[in-house]
Amino acid sequence: MRVLHVTPCFPPTWAYGGIPRVVHALALAQVRAGLDVRVWTTDAFDADRRADVPARRDERGVDVRVSRLWSNRLAWRHQLYLPAGGPPLAEVDVVHLHGHRNLLNWAAYRGAQRAGLPVVWTPNGTAPRLERKQGLKAAWDLLFDGKVPAGADHAVAVSKAEVRQLLALGVAAERIHRIPNPLHLEEFADLPPRGTFRRARGLGDGPIVAYLGQITPRKGVDRLVAAFAGGLDDATLVVGGAARGMRLPVGEHVVYTGTLEGPDRLSLLVDADVLVYPSSDEVFGLVPLEGLLCGAPAVVSGDCGCGELIGEAGAGLVTSGFGTDELRAHIRVLLHDRDRAAKMVERGRRYVEAHLHPDRVAASYIGVYEAGAR
So what's the pLDDT on residue 225? Predict the structure, then answer.
């Protein structure tokens, strides 16, 4: 079977959040499963740079096609990806769209319709009109992507929270499949020694509390910074990520690193005593699960799929709301009770291996593709 994944961003691009990581892990697993896998993406990289990659390359068996963006600035500031070129739909059996409200998805969806190809859609939390520019998103839905939820042959929700989102959008229940995101476990097979990040950044001997990801209004970094007001047991809050659509919150005992990649990213996760993910409306959340693989227990918001998964795994503490007092109290519990934290990490690792292994997730998707191709 020949599948085309459509995503605006793909490694080595990390600054745009979790979808590039998810597509990368899934594509590699599907190659191992014997599929002919292609990816159509762009050269988006970060606020100031484009990815320095060829127009076509082989990524460990994945045929990656890269369309140059007309404007890197529009992509970063407004998520307006304007690709110079169309989707490579020749000799494709299934088109798999990732995310929502981007021109790549729209072009691939329209092309698939004309070619009579089945479409699988994994919005990964982007289907509702959340956070910023809701009027613009409504206009976009009217002109472009509004037909995708109703028209895709199959929609994949990565958590129960996203199932509810899709049902609210009118997607028929029989077309919704719940398949969790995979974790690229190879990345965590050879971790940096503990203390690497601490020494490199001169952070001393106190506890490290970490947040890793994009910094946008719904990610809750402002609440996390407020929880550190006046100090929190001599801990330092390390925030790794780029701000989009907001100013960096100012606070005591807070260190901002910008986007972290490769070994730097892993070394922060290894050195973190607690990893906090206070996001709202987050249907999955890779980072807390990645943190568990590096030894960091998690504190996450309870209104989202991330809290759902951490709760199922028993791998951290889940907040009941968005108050800074509760957030501070949960962090303090895990900083003080290291035996409890270690047990949470062990349960989390077992959960990831049992439920989020890329090969297991790839097999679930192959079943969806085969159903769509019939």
Answer: 93
